[in-house]
Design brief:
The chain is mainly alpha-helical. The chain has 24 helices and two strands. Strands 1-2 form a two-stranded antiparallel ribbon. The longest helix has 30 residues. It is globular and about 70 Å long.
């Protein structure tokens, strides 16, 4: 066999902007195409917007009407937060939706003895919601202070490409439980959806209609429509009448009873559940979720910048985005969504799947969220899509995010044993430690931390139950303490040096400048 000459080998030099995108962050498709793409992002955001209230509201004592109202409120606030983030925050094309990171402290509030003793279900629901609102309002100050004081910008200067690899990767991989395990609960719907989506979006992506790659950009809508009709036929024919309750919940359309429970028109407004109540233990416990959300959002912003074909967000812009996310969590508390906010990972993955990173598309999707949250019946119709269908899409979207995290390895020296150690250990422990916490909670109904101080338990169980958070703690600690003096180049710090400051690269101004000439009043550092 002939020896391969070095000059014949294909070299792929590191690129700080991902190539091959039809439209990047500040370029826009036609209005018709942008509206269709925005609607697609809206549909994808429904999975989390429905799943979190469906899980929490019954435990709070709420009925189907309460659940429908919480779903509407969460979608409404998601739309507002998305507009605020894309206009005044990082300006990256990110949907700011509900977060699972808040589930542990919210469950702690739900199981508070002062609330569980209330006999009437609706009264208990309202009082529990007010307690959650108070905790969210207080804890949102963490992100607001860290963001607007630029303290998070100072912290982010310790983040190298090497340190961000496990964080961004586990933002996607850490959500594996919402992928195939949920497909397995309704294989006859989830598996065809997964296979069909991969086939249309990848193997048929070159199919064009009027010079538009219709399958690459809209395969998700096509697949959801086809499989949704198929699922409705199975439901209407009585295929699940005599099946287990878990199967009915996973497979049937509108098992959550949202269509029948939602009002035709309902406008969410602040303090709609009454005045929030404040409790120090609840607030301290919720602060752990705010910190987890902050770290997960940081990783998601890094991924979104790459999938929008933009440069890495400067420290100043990243901190500005965290400040606005704090405002978003404050709005969650004021409106009563039952959870806090974070970047919607699945929507970031859709940027890569469609190869459309346009900011305008996400802003249009925010408009759909606000519109359909007010027109309750119409929004509930789309929200009746079985969650198994979303789980099939998540398998692809979360995988894309994990791969984006791994792509940061191109800026590092992976022939360094130091780097291999840091990446390997942080990735493994980032999955292993949260899995231990998850299994412990499943078997014993409480986390490994179960002292008499509930707020301390929430802190430990929330932080170490988050894969990206564990990965960041381990990776950043090792990366900044292990043989640091001679490893700057191997860590990839030289690649990100010009993106540390706003004026370090001319492209930063193109991607991250505030609209309406607001930079005059808020000059970047």
């Amino acid at each position: 066999m002939a020896e391969v000459k070095p000059e014949d080998m294909v070299h792929h030099p590191p690129m700080d902007q991902l190539q091959g995108f039809e439209y990047c962050i500040d370029s826009n498709p036609s209005w018709g195409e942008a509206i269709a793409l925005g609607f697609q992002h809206y549909i994808l955001s429904l999975g989390t917007a429905v799943m979190i209230p469906t899980m929490l509201v019954p435990l709070m004592g709420g009925n189907d009407r309460d659940k429908a109202k919480v779903v509407q409120t969460l979608l409404f606030v998601t739309g507002i937060n998305t507009l605020l983030q894309t206009l005044f925050g990082t300006r990256l094309p990110t949907v700011i939706g509900g977060s699972y990171a808040y589930v542990v402290p919210v469950l702690s509030i739900i199981h508070d003895r002062s609330l569980t003793q209330i006999a009437d279900g609706h009264t208990r629901f309202v009082l529990t919601m007010r307690a959650i609102q108070g905790a969210l309002i207080v804890s949102s100050s963490i992100q607001i202070i860290l963001g607007y004081s630029q303290l998070w910008a100072i912290c982010s200067r310790f983040f190298s490409p090497l340190g961000m690899v496990p964080v961004v990767s586990l933002v996607g991989l850490g959500l594996f439980e919402r992928g195939f395990p949920l497909i397995g609960s309704c294989v006859e719907i989830g598996l065809p959806m997964l296979i069909l989506f991969v086939a249309l979006s990848q193997y048929l992506k070159h199919v064009h209609l009027r010079h538009v790659p219709i399958m690459e950009r809209f395969s998700m809508l096509v697949c959801i429509a086809l499989v949704w009709v198929y699922a409705h036929i199975l439901t209407a024919s009585g295929a699940y009448k005599h099946t287990a309750l878990v199967t009915q919940i996973s497979c049937q359309t509108d098992r959550s009873n949202l269509i029948s429970s939602a009002l035709w028109i309902s406008i969410p407004y602040p303090l709609q559940w009454g005045a929030p109540t404040f409790n120090a233990d609840h607030a301290f416990g919720m602060m752990a979720a705010v910190m987890v959300s902050l770290i997960e959002t940081t990783g998601a912003f890094k991924a979104a910048a790459r999938l929008a074909s933009a440069t890495p967000p400067p420290a100043y812009v990243l901190s500005r985005g965290i400040g606005w996310q704090g405002i978003g969590t404050l709005l969650d508390g004021l409106f009563g969504t039952g959870t806090g906010s974070t970047v919607s990972i699945e929507n970031v993955g859709l940027l890569g799947s469609t190869r459309i990173g346009s900011r305008r598309v996400i802003q249009i999707s925010a408009g759909f969220m606000i519109f359909f949250s007010i027109l309750g019946k119409f929004g509930a119709l789309f929200a009746s899509i079985p969650f198994t269908i979303f789980a099939a899409i998540y398998c692809v979207m979360f995988g894309i995010i994990a791969a984006v995290g791994l792509s940061f390895l191109q800026f590092t020296n992976m022939n360094s044993m130091r780097n291999l150690f840091i990446v390997g250990v942080s990735l493994f422990l980032g999955l292993s430690i949260p899995e231990y916490f998850s299994r412990y909670m499943t078997s014993s109904r409480s986390g490994p931390a179960h002292t008499k101080a509930e707020w301390f338990n929430d802190y430990i169980n929330t932080i170490f139950g988050s894969p990206p958070t564990v990965a960041l703690i381990i990776a950043v600690l090792l990366d900044n303490t292990l043989d640091v003096r001679d490893a700057a180049k191997d860590r990839g710090m030289s690649w990100w040096a010009r993106f540390r400051t706003y004026r370090g690269d001319s492209r930063n101004e193109e991607f991250y400048t505030l609209p309406f000439n607001l930079n005059r009043f808020f000059p970047p550092s």
